[in-house]
Amino acid sequence: MKKILLGVTGAIAAYKVCTLVRLMIREGWDVRVVATPTALEFVGEVVWHTLTQRPVERDGLGPIYPPRHIELATWCDCFVVAPATANTLAKLAHGIGDNLLTQTALACDRPLLLAPSMNAKMWAHPATQANLTTLMGRGAHLLDPGVGELACGVTGTGRLPEPEEILAVMKDLVREM
Ligand SMILES: Cc1cc2nc3c(=O)[nH]c(=O)nc-3n(C[C@H](O)[C@H](O)[C@H](O)COP(=O)(O)O)c2cc1C
Fold first, then answer.
1. CATH number at residue 33
2. pTM for the complete prediction?
3. Is omega for the bond preceding 126 within 30 degrees of 0, making it cis?
4. What residue ranges line ligand 1, CB within 6 angstroms?
5. Cα dihedral sign for 162, 111, 59, 54?
6. Strands (DSSP E) along 13-87, which ranges?
7. What separation in angstroms does the CA of 122 have from each of 36, 117, 128, 131, 152?
8. How many domains does the chain have?
9. Ligand 1 centroid, distance to 85 Cα (angstroms)
10. What domain range includes position 84?
11. pLDDT of 112-146, one tens digit each?
């Protein structure tokens, strides 16, 4: 059974990832969610816990040993961050570990798939693009956001791909593992 660690960050498209979780469970994968504090303001812990039938991994002391970021990083076969905010991409690119998700990413050497989602100007910002270049240079897999109407009211690049599209990319990645 493939073990998928799903990192959820504070983007409006977090609601779409609920469907992705259902699709992953249907594949027979074991899915655990690690959420940033902001992510849990968008979609609450009850939803993730129920869909994955696993407690949500979130900031807070929790069990001391083994350290949770190390346990999560070594447990998973694959780490997927969807949706990935501009903020979390910047942290990942620069090695910042100020929450459980980013600490886990620092400790994880498994395949990393990033599915960014954000406003078109945030996406096009040179800082975001430079961070993505850095991350891909280190071997991260990038799922490009789509073009279309965004939740913020503008039309442009920044839409999270549909759950079925993300699943298809994940299946390819998992097949290689
Ligand atoms: C209503 C609302 C929607 C947001 N949507 C996005 C988004 O789609 N993508 C993004 O990168 N940031 C978005 N943000 C900003 C992030 O929530 C903010 O940068 C936050 O610090 C991200 O924290 P995290 O990366 O630790 O989850 C949004 C903020 C608000 C208030």
1. 3.40.50.1950
2. 0.97
3. no
4. 9-13, 36, 38-39, 85-88, 117-118, 122
5. positive
6. 30-35, 78-84
7. 19, 9, 7, 12, 11
8. 1
9. 6
10. 3-176
11. 999 999 999 999 999 999 999 999 999 999 999 99
